[in-house]
Amino acid sequence: xxxxxxxxxxxxxxxxxxxPREFLGSRKxxxxxxxxxxxxxIFICYIASLAASFMMAPLLEFLLALFLFFAYASxxxxxxxxxxxxxTDFLRCVTAAIIYFAISIAAVSKYNxxxxxxxxxxxxxxxxxxxxxxxxxxxxxVSFLKQGSSDPPEGHKSEDENSDSDSD
Length: 168
What we know:
Number of strands: 0
Structural class: mainly alpha
Shape: globular
Distance between the termini: 85 Å
Oligomer: single chain
Largest sheet: none
Strand content: under 5%
């Protein structure tokens, strides 16, 4: 009978590519995973349908969501400080929600095949998931902006105190 490996020793290979469990359990990780899966399903549905002209939007959203999933999981957002990641993510979610809503309406109303209808229904679900993500990201942006706007008055206060002490 083989002895199980100790918990501290991880085998190199595919496990190194998997995101940490903490990230998968987080709200952001679950949303990005859901966005990736839904975008891939919608992409496959559009390929199999008469509405194949809509397949580029889900493909791009799948790739962007997958990139952000692995970027957040590997903490690239902490390594590259020059890019404000929540703003980028917010803009991606807003445009994805709008695009998915528009092409889902077109796919459901214009095409009669089952794959187009399925892509449209999954597109409406994806619209909701992206809307939830941009709502949460928007709240993070607002709290960041409020935090940033509270700093300058303190800076002005210390300058005013300095000017008051100079006039004495």
